[in-house]
Amino acid sequence: MIRLCAFTDEAGKPLAEQIDAMHRNNLFLTELRTVDGVNVSKLSPDEARGIRSTLDSEGLAVWSIGSPLGKVDISVDMDEYLDTVRHVCELANVLGTDKIRMFSFHKAYEDEMRVFDNLSRMVDTAKEYGVTLYHENEKNIYGDTAERVLRIMDSVKGLRFVYDPANFLQCGEPADKTLPLFHHRCDYFHIKDVIAATEELVPAGCGDGQIARLVDMIEGDTVLTLEPHLAIFDGYGAIDDRKMKNKFVFSSNAEAFDTAVKALKAILCECGYREAHGAFVK
After folding, report:
1. DSSP type of residue 271
2. Residue 48: which H helix or E strand, with range?
């Protein structure tokens, strides 16, 4: 069974618009990143409780927190930074998820052992809250290339992983290389596609991410989280300091989001899945 999730802030800034997009597209899980333009890591516990209550009342749930943890320079004071980790873990408890997406530090290529030590300390801190950290390969962090992600996998006990094909492509790592290496070692997948030659972000299946192959390789149950980046959404500049290139133009973020969901669902159907009770089964 495959369940679909999404960074719903790409559909709209207010929580109400994110909820409308989930209902409109028959999605029940969100990877919560921003609400009303506020990054999830900046929420108070009371604000998180309010979000949880609203989602519960709509029959929706937080699959993972799409946090920016680890998107800081490797020189960060980790004793102080672990307070931020604890705060996000507390929010995860309040929001009803045991998963936090995170990263592996900027300006860190020459300081590998410090990367591993910092990540291990973060993993151990999260365990105190019953939370698991999931590393996403990303541009301009230590874990951006296949080689370095493999080194993290082999060196940081207890850390889990998310596979993002577009981020690898934007680092010059083709899907022919990364899919065989990581598909079986990652716990869930971010669905984002890009044309490698132009770095234009496109709906799933329109780029070089080999999304259909990714789906065909799935065995058992998993979650696919849409992170399409098909339009510039509120807070994008705080997420990625590179200019975003898009192949297609949409009239609104809602239209771009709906297009992304439709493209992924079409691939799932082509791969032999059918939609049933909010999930995809064969």
Report:
1. T
2. helix 45-57
| Helix, strand, or coil (residue 31) | strand
pLDDT in tens, 222-249: 999 999 899 765 555 555 555 668 777 8
Q: How far apart are CA 76 and CA 118, in angstroms?
A: 10
List, for residues 141-177, the tens digit of each pLDDT value. 999 999 999 999 999 999 999 999 999 999 999 999 9
Structure tokens, 118:
């910092």
Q: Collapse the DSSP code of 160 into the 3-class scheme (helix H, G, I; strand E, B; otherwise coil) and give the result.
A: strand
In tens, the pLDDT along 178-209 reads 999 999 999 999 999 999 999 999 999 999 99
pTM listed for this prediction = 0.95
Q: How many angstroms separate the CA atoms of 38 and 91, rounded?
A: 14
Q: Residue 50: which residues within 8 A CB-CB, separation 6 or more? A: none
Burial class (CB in 10 A: 0-12, 13-18, 19+), 89: buried
Phi, psi of 63 (to 5 degrees): -80, -45
By C-alpha distance, which of 41, 123, 33 is closest to 78? 123
Decide: 89 and 100 in contact? Cβ < 8 Å.
yes
Rounded to an integer, what distance in angstroms lies between the CA atom of residue 8 and that of residue 36? Answer: 12
In 3-state terms, what secondary structure has residue 53? helix
Q: What is the CA radius of gyration of the chain?
A: 18
Please tell me which residue, 251 or 3, carries the higher pLDDT value. Answer: 3
The dihedral sign for the CA sequence 77, 7, 171, 119: positive
Give alpha helix (H) positions in 131-220.
146-155, 165-169, 175-182, 211-216
Q: What is the dihedral of CA 201, 204, 206, 208, to 10 degrees?
A: 80
Closest by Cα among 246, 221, 217 to 233: 246
